[in-house]
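Ops channel
N.P.: pipeline sanity check, posting one input/output pair.
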C-alpha cells in the first residue's frame, strides 16, 4: 500500500496595496477674494502704523487722562482716606501726604509717589497705600517709636532709637521717657539705652543724661545725683560697679550730689553738706 505524502506550501500573506500619492492641486484664487484679503492686510498695517504714531505723539496718555477724569465724575474719586497705625504723629499730615497729587481721580492716584511722600515724614518708619474702589484710599503707617526726649538749644523733640525726630509737638506726653541733652545726643541715644539696659534697676531711676564732648555721658538720677561715666567700653563696667555699690550701701538719696567714675578703680564723691560716715561704705 502506497502512502501519499502531500506537501503543503506556506500560506502567502496578502500584499498590502500601496496608497497612491495624493495629487496636490493648486486652486486659483478668485480675483475678488484676493483683493479683499489684500485690502485687509493693508488696513492692518495702516492701523499699526497709526498706533505707533499715536504713542509717539502721546495720544494714549491724553486719552487715559480723559478716561480717568470721566471715571472721577462718575464716582471714582478719592472721597475718603482710612488711616491705620497712627498713634503719635498728626493724622492730618498723613492725609495731606496721601492726597498731595495733582488729581483726586482714583485711577490717577500715584500709589508709589504717595508712599514716598509718607515715608518722608520724619516720624514715619514705613507706609503703604492702596485703593478700595470706588472712592477710598487705605493708608497703613508704621511709626517710629519714641524712646527718649532730646533737648538741644532749648528745644525739645521726641526721638527714636536711631536718633530720628518723631515729633516736636505735645512733648508732655513723653514725660516718662529719659531726657538726653546736648549736641548729637540724639545720635548716641542708642548706645546710652544699651548701657542702661544692663542695669535695669538704675535705669528706672534715671531722669536725664548729658552727652559730654560727644564722647561720654553724665547720668542724672531722679533723686538729684549725677554720675560721671568714662568713655567707651569702660562705661559699662563703671555703671555695673556703681550699681553693686548702691545695692549694698545705698548711695542714691543720701545727700551725695555727684559721683565721678572716670578714673578706673576710683570714685570721687561730692556732697552738698557734710554727711556722717556710714558703716560699710567704701569710696
Amino acid at each position: 500500500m502506497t502512502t501519499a505524502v502531500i506537501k503543503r506550501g506556506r500560506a502567502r500573506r496578502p500584499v498590502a496595496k500601496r496608497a497612491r500619492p495624493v495629487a496636490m492641486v493648486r486652486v486659483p484664487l478668485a480675483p475678488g477674494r484676493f483683493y479683499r484679503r489684500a485690502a485687509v492686510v493693508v488696513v492692518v498695517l495702516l492701523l499699526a502704523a497709526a498706533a505707533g504714531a499715536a504713542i509717539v505723539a502721546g495720544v494714549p496718555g491724553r486719552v487715559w487722562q480723559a478716561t480717568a477724569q470721566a471715571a472721577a465724575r462718575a464716582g471714582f474719586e478719592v472721597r475718603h482716606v482710612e488711616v491705620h497705625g497712627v498713634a503719635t504723629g498728626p493724622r492730618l499730615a498723613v492725609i495731606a501726604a496721601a492726597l498731595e497729587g495733582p488729581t483726586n481721580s482714583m485711577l490717577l492716584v500715584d500709589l508709589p509717589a504717595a508712599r514716598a511722600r509718607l515715608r518722608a515724614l520724619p516720624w514715619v518708619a514705613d507706609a503703604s497705600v492702596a485703593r478700595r474702589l470706588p472712592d477710598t484710599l487705605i493708608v497703613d503707617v508704621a511709626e517710629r517709636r519714641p524712646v527718649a526726649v532730646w533737648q538741644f538749644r532749648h528745644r525739645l523733640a521726641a526721638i527714636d532709637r536711631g536718633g530720628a525726630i518723631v515729633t516736636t509737638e505735645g512733648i508732655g506726653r513723653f514725660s516718662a521717657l529719659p531726657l538726653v541733652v546736648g549736641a548729637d545726643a540724639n545720635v548716641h541715644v542708642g548706645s546710652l539705652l544699651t548701657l542702661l539696659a544692663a542695669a535695669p534697676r538704675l535705669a528706672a531711676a534715671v531722669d536725664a543724661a548729658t552727652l559730654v564732648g560727644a564722647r561720654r555721658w553724665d547720668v542724672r538720677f531722679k533723686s538729684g545725683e549725677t554720675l560721671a561715666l568714662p568713655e567707651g567700653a569702660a562705661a559699662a563696667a563703671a555703671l555695673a560697679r556703681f550699681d553693686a555699690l548702691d545695692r549694698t550701701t545705698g548711695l542714691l538719696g543720701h545727700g551725695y550730689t555727684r559721683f565721678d567714675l572716670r578714673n578706673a578703680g576710683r570714685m570721687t564723691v561730692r556732697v552738698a553738706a557734710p554727711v556722717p560716715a556710714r558703716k560699710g561704705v567704701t569710696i
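N.P.: looks fine end to end. The longest strand covers residues 124-132.
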